[in-house]
Amino acid sequence: MTSDSTPTAPTTPTAPSGPATSVQRTVVPSLFPPPGYAHAAVVEAGTRLAFMAGSVPLDPDGNLIGEDDPVGQAHQVIANLDEALRAVGSDLSQVVASTVYVVGDEPEALSRVWDVVRASELLSERPHTSTLLGVTVLGYPGQLVEITVTAVVPAGPDA
């Protein structure tokens, strides 16, 4: 940004979802190009946002899906996240920020999960800001992947 707050980078505004909803995603040309995400996302004031708890690789009965398989767990986490977002009137395409947690200390494990995230609707439609972290342990026994997000909740006809 310049001192007058004029964007100096390509931006991709989302299509308005309601009367006053807009998101501006920016990749800053003077920084290293991020692999599949944006450097910044600006959400217009007054837009409804959902701050989602970490999505985990459990089925509806609480069983771990993808034991010892971070890629399988990533697929389950994204499916659960999509369902949770839809329950609050949003979806994966409305995500403006995410944090992906992967148990592991080797870049290869993180990269395999990141490949799943990039190929999913979470990042393939409209890249948003994202952070990928390698961690030592997550909350459930055997859990290897968790994703938290913030998403726009488009204004509906009754909003």
Explain the overall architecture.
It contains three helices and seven strands. It has helices at residues 70-87, 107-119, 121-124, and strands at residues 11-13, 23-26, 40-43, 49-51, 95-103, 129-135, 145-152. Helix 1 crosses helix 2 (107-119). Residues 1-20 have low confidence and may be disordered.
How far apart the termini lie comes to 33 Å
- The count of strands amounts to 7
Counted by DSSP, the helix tally is 3
Which regions are unreliable across 5 or more consecutive residues at pLDDT < 50?
1-20
Estimate the global geometry from the Cα principal axes.
globular
Structural class: alpha+beta
Helix percent band: 10-25%
Q: Give the ordered list of helices and strands.
A: EEEEHEHHEE
* β-strand amount: 15-25%
Largest sheet: 4 strands, mixed
Would you tell me the overall average pLDDT?
83
What integer value in Å does the Rg equal? 16 Å
Spatial order of strands in the largest sheet: 4-7-5-6
